[in-house]
Amino acid sequence: MSVFDAAVPWRDFRWYRGQRHFSGSYWSATMQAHVGYESRLEYANLLLADFDPRVDWILSQPFLLEGEDKGTRRRHIPDYLIVHADHTACVVDVKPAAKLTIPKVRDSLSWSRRVIEPHGWEYRVQSEPDEVLLRNVQFLAGYRRPFQFADGDVTAALGELKSPMAFGEAVRAIAPVAGGLLAARALVLHLLWARRLSTDLTRLLSATSIVTQA
């Protein structure tokens, strides 16, 4: 059991008519539960964290930082706390790249880093991810729910996909296992999400993308 297992977000996520930011709740395969976000950029980075096989635990709005910074009183709630499979922790703030040079934003993030890193935790500021990678992962996320795929089908499919082949070939190869081409396509996409198969996600996924066992 992790020391973080009982942790909950510091504040509630609010949705109301006319709000300026884009809030929502995303069902995380890592957490097997919903995780909140307060902007499209936070959602994008949350999605990539959920896809990252090193990530074992994700909490949004994890705690309040409060203190003095050279005569300035600061209060700040980071966007995410991530715990990796090796039990290392990382605090994440998500900011548009265009705002990182604004003195008020830069100073706040710098103060957060100085507070967090002495505790032995990594501190990371994330901005806009690679557009192609995000589009691919967002597409794969539609197939992230493991309960939609029978364990026996997953095992049998991996047995048929031992050699590198194009995505379209992989779908045809496991169609008898999955029960048809549509089900086979969904299963290959799930295996890519689950990192049981791998491909170059810096290029748009297509029928000719080469997939290999991870």
Protein model, in words:
There is one protein chain. The protein is an alpha+beta fold. It has six helices and eleven strands. The strands form four sheets. It has a four-stranded mixed sheet with strand order 3-6-7-8, with helices on both faces. Strand 1 (24-28) and strand 2 (33-37) form a beta hairpin. The mean pLDDT is 92.
User: In percent, how helical is the residue content?
Assistant: 25-40%
Order of helices and strands: EEHEEEEEHEHHEHHEE
Tell me about the largest β-sheet: 4 strands, mixed
Strand content is 15-25%
Low-confidence blocks of residues: none
Mean pLDDT: 92
Distance N to C terminus: 28 Å
Number of H- or I-type helical stretches: 6
Query: Strand order within the widest sheet?
Result: 3-6-7-8
Based on secondary structure, the structural category is: alpha+beta
Taking Cα atoms only, what radius of gyration do you get, to the nearest Å? 20 Å
- Shape descriptor reads elongated
The beta-strand count equals 11
SSE diagram, text form:
Layout: E1 24-28, E2 33-37, H1 40-51, E3 55-60, E4 65-69, E5 72-76, E6 80-84, E7 89-94, H2 103-116, E8 122-126, H3 131-140, H4 151-160, E9 165-166, H5 167-178, H6 181-193, E10 197-198, E11 210-213
Parallel strand pairs: 7-8
Antiparallel strand pairs: 1-2, 3-6, 4-5, 6-7, 9-11, 10-11
Structure keywords:
214 residues; alpha+beta; four-stranded mixed sheet; three-stranded antiparallel sheet; 11 strands; elongated
